[in-house]
Amino acid sequence: MLRDRIKTALAALSPLEITETDHAKKGYDLDVQVSPDQVPAAAEAIRQEEFFIEAVTGVDWFGEQAAIVAEAAKVKAAAAKKAAAAAAAAAEAGGEAVPPAPAPEAPAEEAELLPDVMEVVYDFSHYQENCRVVVRTRVPRDNPELPTISSIFQGANWHERETHDFFGIRFLGHPDLTPLLLPEDADFHPLLKDFKA
Hints:
By secondary structure, the protein is α/β, with parallel strands linked by helices. The protein folds into two domains: 2-61 and 117-172, Beta Polymerase, domain 2, CATH 3.30.460.80; 63-115. Helices cover 33% and strands 22% of the residues. It has helices at 2-11, 23-26, 39-48, 64-92, 156-167, and strands at 17-20, 30-33, 51-60, 117-126, 132-140, 145-147, 170-172. Strands 1-2-5-4-3 form a five-stranded mixed β-sheet. A two-stranded parallel ribbon has the order 6-7. Strand 4 (117-126) and strand 5 form a beta hairpin. The longest helix has 29 residues, at 64-92. The chain is extended and about 75 Å long. The protein starts with a helix and ends in a 25-residue tail after the last strand.
């Protein structure tokens, strides 16, 4: 089966993670997380199984870590409030005070935040079998670059240019990252979360 063959080929690269998914629910069969330097090897393994590239796009996770810490702080505060209310109700009813349950594990509010990242998502589909593979990688937001796959999949050329236009992600070794959809003199990337028009 194609999915098993491509999963085996990608597993040989020691990716960060490979997840089998339900095609009917997700629209793809494998979700593969790789490091940026593994992207060309993953693309080559996929090409050898006669897949074609559908799309390359970016995702700006700007503020993700801060949002996680803020949400964890809310959960911790709500748990503490609930425990205090339960203890007060028990004391008022004349019962024995029950020690509050420990708050759920959460990152410390003072913890140093991880750097913000951007994700590059590659969608591949097979010519004959109904099989789709998604390859994801994350790059630091302050230096968003990774190797191009335009020499492996010629169709990636324009997709990478578009991703560079809108997110500022640099594809090292790409033959021509001049703007594709933005004005030639554009010095902005409109899909970044901190972009202001």
